[in-house]
Amino acid sequence: MDSLARKGNECMSDMTKVLNEKLQFVTETLETAEKYEHALHVLNFDMETLCPAEGMEEEGETIAFLSTQAYKLLKTDEFTEAAEYLYEHRFGSGTEDAPGDDALGELDRVLAENLHREYAKIKNITPEMNHEFTLTFNKAYIDWLNAKTASDYGIFAPSLAKVREINFKDVSLRTEKKASVYDSLLDDYERGITADDLDEAFGECKERLIPFLEKIRNSGKVIRTDFLHRTVKDEQQRAMTQYLLETIGYDFRRGAFATTEHPFTDDLAKNDVRITTHYYPEMFCSNLYSTIHEGGHAIFGQLQPYEHHGKHIANEMTLGMHESVSRFYENRIGRSEAFTGLIFDRTKEIFPGILDDVSPREFYEGVNAVRPSLIRTEADEFTYTFHIIIRYEIEKMIVNGNAPIEDLPRIWNEKYRDYLGVMPANDAEGILQDVHWSGGFGYFPTYALGNMYNAMYYNRMKNELDVERCVSGGDFASINGWMKENVFAKANLLEPKEWIRDITGRSFTPKDFLDYLEEKYGALYGIE
Amino acid sequence: MDSLARKGNECMSDMTKVLNEKLQFVTETLETAEKYEHALHVLNFDMETLCPAEGMEEEGETIAFLSTQAYKLLKTDEFTEAAEYLYEHRFGSGTEDAPGDDALGELDRVLAENLHREYAKIKNITPEMNHEFTLTFNKAYIDWLNAKTASDYGIFAPSLAKVREINFKDVSLRTEKKASVYDSLLDDYERGITADDLDEAFGECKERLIPFLEKIRNSGKVIRTDFLHRTVKDEQQRAMTQYLLETIGYDFRRGAFATTEHPFTDDLAKNDVRITTHYYPEMFCSNLYSTIHEGGHAIFGQLQPYEHHGKHIANEMTLGMHESVSRFYENRIGRSEAFTGLIFDRTKEIFPGILDDVSPREFYEGVNAVRPSLIRTEADEFTYTFHIIIRYEIEKMIVNGNAPIEDLPRIWNEKYRDYLGVMPANDAEGILQDVHWSGGFGYFPTYALGNMYNAMYYNRMKNELDVERCVSGGDFASINGWMKENVFAKANLLEPKEWIRDITGRSFTPKDFLDYLEEKYGALYGIE
User: Of the candidates B453, B456, B492, which has an alpha carbon nearest to the alpha carbon of residue B318?
Assistant: First the structure.
């Protein structure tokens, strides 16, 4: 071995030593931060579920205190420098195309890239700006709440303009630029997806779904839904929640459920993924499908690779990826005739008297009835996409400056008329119905993308698994096993487009989703 | 003003300045520690109620992490020195009998005394010893659990000896001595109460209650209890819990309830005092009276003076004082005929069919039936005190070295035979029934003291308030108002003996309690 090679080895060895030290420091700091995060999740879950009204202020203060402790840990120069060092040396003495022997392992590399991406977003944001952003969003939330209560968009409009301004300021300070401000915002929720992708996908949706909705309207098919509004007691809905979660394979040794007005899933810790649901006496289906939806999110959380927790890259999948799973369980499985058939008898038992005059087929049809309506959260599977398209089109106009803030209610109402044939009677059931814009723009599309992703992987799944037979036989071990192996395994490692190509071998497209809707609803409404 | 006086003033002013600085530092540090404490209470409550089985290990780790953070804050030299400075200068330039103008205010003085008292107990305990103590108690707990499961005292005996040894070591290292080791241990749970006090009080109890129990046995009175074991569903017991807590004036804006195997009350924060209860299908009374018992603890927590929280001396009352309040609500109120009459009709509604063939009088008699039994937690109000006396006599013998560890089961069984006329068939229902001794000695007497305290203040209360009329009319505002003003107001400030004298103007005595038992049970069993 000549002296040059020895020197080279020595240098590598030095770098490896430093890299390992930095990695250890970053990992240990993240471990400590995750202890605080775990506590924060428990406190937040408690605040949403059991905390009494007058206890909330103090619980909020304790949450703020612990958040600050966690924040401080990750905002030191030492941590930032170590994390940036990892990112710069993630391929060791090699390059992205030819990583060196001393490169970080895959999971450590993903961690370094995640930390770098987050850092690039915030490195130029001063604490003062961060404070200004927080105040703006908090005020916008309060204004939205007041505006919705009064059904008066005028109360919210100035805050909405200010949120837009803050979003612009935030994006302008980032070191990594996208093609447009809107793309930057979108990227926060759905990495790698652009407005061009959405224009194309939603364009196809409109092209096929608007005329198809007309056919549904003209089909003359009448679907019974009267029984869906019969009164079901809370404790019966609680028993139903338990039954449904058990049925779809949610693991109660590693989870629990509680009730909240707005259901959610919370990954508190590796072995503690909880959901919430709600009980509306006259809408038992709201409990039923929100349970399956959140249960889907939770199964995703419970069946992530264990080692991702150890490497601090758990729960790194995008919102759209998460929604693809929850909607897979809610719609593809939960609203299939195989599933409504599976649960029919037990549902009759748990809800005595409610389904006595209802056939299994009527139950299936009832939970799938298409009803163009004004409210997104109550929409059926078919019309749901329109609600998202409308929000996408309007938020893109807002960000791009193509719609004056004062004109939004009119624009909103016209789109509801054009796409769904319904007209809001007031701002509360129109432009003000969702909270999201008080926190910025770019979130809504993730809801629709989820349906498109799962339609793509469902088409591979059904080639490898007799899905219908699994569902009607209650064999969720097979379904969840397939999801774990194919859908969940790399969700923390890849961006959505890479991930969907990895699962299906195909590029992202809305086609599978549109085919599915036309086939299912064509059969249901006797079209063609 | 001459120069000496000026100098004197300057000195005072300097001291006042330092005192204020130290007070501010101590107060701010305690505020931070209380944020951690609040989070720890939420996490502990969550662990006991909702946390799934496999999530407990991680939640336990997070609890340990946050505990360490809080512990570190209060174990710095700076904090200890500041706290000791406050204690030494609590009377300013004056003395206890004649405090200076620059003395600490009453609440700050109590804080300084509390911190000093705790410090005096632990100042000579090294971290290694503390670790040894913790390991010993943990092992004793596990051994007790295994021993009880196997009903084999031999498994627990070596640990019990070790716990005694640790208690001795702990006490020997304290800077402030009591008359005996047992008095020191007792003082940890019930400040200022000594074995002499208990010997006298329990001596009177035995003298009057043993012959009275004989009269009850011979009275020939038969009390119906069959209906107490009829099956009541969980959701009905849940509705009962809600009704009872509302009835006794528990404030749901500042509290909530959940279920656990062993009910408890948790003061999570100033405006968040929660209870837990349990539902046994065949013993609805267990839910009923554990709810009122914990509800009593919680009302005490909710009605403490607000300023005690601000001064970090909330929840400083002793266990006996707390038990006096919970047992006041459970027994003095909850088992009175006024109360069983108040809730009778509503109970019939909430538990359909359960009380149809039961009269209000039979309901009252049923919940008060005297049945000498082996198990403390299932004991009636009359025989309960015997269970405590037996434990007191035995733990005092253990600590004083008057009973070999291996003889304890025999001693236990003989006392049960002598006092209650029953004999345990095995160790599990005898010497092993309670967990407490795995954590040390001195706790049990607080349970009995509570009954004696509340009997004393009840006798003042009934002179100032028509208690029976309040209860039968559901006027708990008056009862709770009286308790707040007279019983709760100074509970954080005074030791039990001072406190009971402050409320009643009399020295501590078991007489009121014994008079009450003889009067109530005399009437119930037709004695004399």
Answer: B492
Beta bridge partners of A265: A275
Which residue of chain B comes nearest to A63, CA vs CA?
A: B39
Q: Which residues contact A125 (CB under 8 A, 6 or more apart)?
A: A133, A170, A173
Residue at token pair 């407005």:
A195
- Nearest to residue A284, comparing CAs of A343, A338, A326? A343
Instruction: Classify residue A277 as exposed, middle or buried by CB count within 10 Å of its CB (0-12, 13-18, 19+).
Output: buried
Chain B residue with CA closest to A44: the answer is B42
Whose tokens are 């538990």? That residue is: B351
Residue pair B458/B516 in contact by the 8 Å Cβ criterion: yes
The pair of three-digit structure tokens given for residue A82, joined into one six-digit string? 């170590």
Do A39 and B39 make contact, defined as CB atoms within 8 angstroms?
yes
SS3 of residue B277 by DSSP:
strand
B395 close to B110: Cβ distance less than 8 angstroms:
no
| Active site residues per annotation of A | 294
The phi-psi region of residue B192 (left if phi > 0; otherwise alpha if psi is between -120 and 50; otherwise beta) is: left
The CA distance from B354 to B121, in Å, is 53
Starting at the edge strand found earlier in the chain, the sheet holding B265-269 runs: B257-259, B272-277, B265-269
A428 to chain B, any CB pair closer than 8 A? The answer is no
B495 catalytic residue (yes or no): no
Search chain A and give the residue with CA nearest B272. Answer: A55
Report yes or no: B32 at the A interface, CB cutoff 8 Å: yes
Residue A274, H or E segment: strand A272-277
Testing the interface with B: which of A50, A235, A245, A254 to mutate, by most B Cβ within 10 A?
A: A50
Residues lower than pLDDT 70 in chain B: 1-12
| Closest C-alpha to B464, from B445, B486, B447 | B486
With H, G, I as helix, E, B as strand and everything else as coil, classify residue A291: helix
CB pair distance less than 8 Å for A272 and B52? yes
Best A54, A61, A246 residue to mutate vs chain B (most B CBs within 10 Å): A54
Report the side by side order of strands in the sheet with A265-269. Answer: A257-259, A272-277, A265-269
- Distance, in Å, from the CA atom of A382 to the CA atom of A448, rounded to the nearest integer, reads 11
Residue pair A355/A330 in contact by the 8 Å Cβ criterion: no
pTM of the model as a whole: 0.92
Of A376-385, A513-522, B12-21, B178-187, minimum mean pLDDT range: B12-21
Q: What are phi and psi of B274, to 5 degrees?
A: -105, 155
Residue-wise pLDDT for A72-110, tens only, equals: 999 899 999 999 999 999 999 999 999 999 999 999 999
Whole-number Cα distances in Å, A50 to A64, A256, B253, B393: 19, 14, 11, 42
- List chain A residues with CB under 8 Å of B235: 235
Return the number of other C-beta atoms located less than 10 Å from residue B20's C-beta: 12
What would the two tokens of residue B228 be?
Answer: 């107490």
- Of the candidates B364, B457, B50, the one whose C-alpha atom is nearest the C-alpha of residue A51 is B50
Q: What is chain B's alpha carbon radius of gyration, rounded to the nearest angstrom?
A: 25
Locate tokens 């993308």: which residue?
Answer: A449
Asked whether the predicted pLDDT for residue A49 surpasses 60, the reply is yes
- Name, in order, each residue with C-beta under 8 angstroms of B18's C-beta and a sequence gap of 6 or more: B85
The torsion of the CA quartet B107, B108, B110, B112, rounded to 10 degrees, works out to 170
> Is the Cβ pair A55, B235 closer than 8 Å?
no
Q: Are strands A265-269 and A272-277 parallel, antiparallel or unpaired?
A: antiparallel
Kindly report the CA angle at B390 between B384 and B393, in degrees rounded to 5? Answer: 140
- Residue in A42, A54, A255 closest to B46 by CB: A42
pLDDT in tens, A441-482: 999 999 999 999 999 999 999 999 999 999 999 999 999 999
Which residue(s) pair with A259 in the sheet? Answer: A277
The radius of gyration of chain A from alpha carbons, rounded to an integer in Å, stands at: 25
Q: Which residue of A has its CA nearest to B43?
A: A42
